[in-house]
Amino acid sequence: MNYRSHQRRNTQSPQDSVVDKFLNRLTQLGNNLSKLEDEVIFHPSEGYAKGIVEELKLSNVQLRKFYMEIRNVYERYLDYELNFSGKSEDEKKKKEEELKYHLYRLYAVTHYQVNRGVIKEKNGEKFLKLMDNIVDSLVNNFNKENLRKASDFFMAMVAYSKRES
Questions:
Q1: Which helix (H) or strand (E) covers residue 144, if one does?
Q2: Which of 80, 101, 120, 138 has the highest Cβ tally under 10 A?
Q3: Which residues contact 129 (CB under 8 A, 6 or more apart)?
């Protein structure tokens, strides 16, 4: 299903926020980012990434930390995948938990950013909800495609965000 047909079939009111629409779509997909269509992430006028950035008035400075953390976990996962084939299940589980640690840290980093006012208070609750759902998705569906899609999503948000002067 492409983004436009999803929008036509969507029964939400036009006042629903882009964050809410994204979270509803994520729920429809079983909280699995890897099932999210590329078009609904990247499209410049109808994609979630640009819409969320504009709605929450996020700057690239605010987003870059999250993008870099998720990108680093994704790259470490790729390295782990190459170097851990043939290893014992215990070794694989230990490495996976080590990688998930960096995702768990994002819960605290998000709250820290909101609590110290880096993310403006009126948008803070929406940003917390967004990040909690994304991190939940990554932790509960820990795989290469989910990490890649999250990395791409944050890369798109950074690309559509305004640079702070």
A1: helix 144-160
A2: 138
A3: 19, 23
pTM of the full predicted structure? Answer: 0.85
Q: Which of 91, 7, 1, 93 is nearest to 46 (CA)?
A: 7
Tell me the per-residue pLDDT of 96-132, one tens digit each, with 9 for 90 and over.
Answer: 999 999 999 999 999 998 998 888 778 899 999 999 9
Contact between 17 and 23 under an 8 Å Cβ cutoff? The reply is no
pLDDT band (50, 70, 90) for residue 164: low
Average of pLDDT values for 87-91?
A: 85
Alpha helices in 3-143 (DSSP H): 3-9, 18-28, 38-42, 48-56, 60-83, 89-115, 121-140
Residues whose CB falls within 8 Å of the CB of residue 47, separated by 6 or more in sequence, listed in order: 3, 39, 40, 41, 156
Judge whether residue 3 has pLDDT over 50: no
To which residue do tokens 């729920």 refer?
Answer: 27
Q: What are phi and psi of 40, to 5 degrees?
A: -75, -10
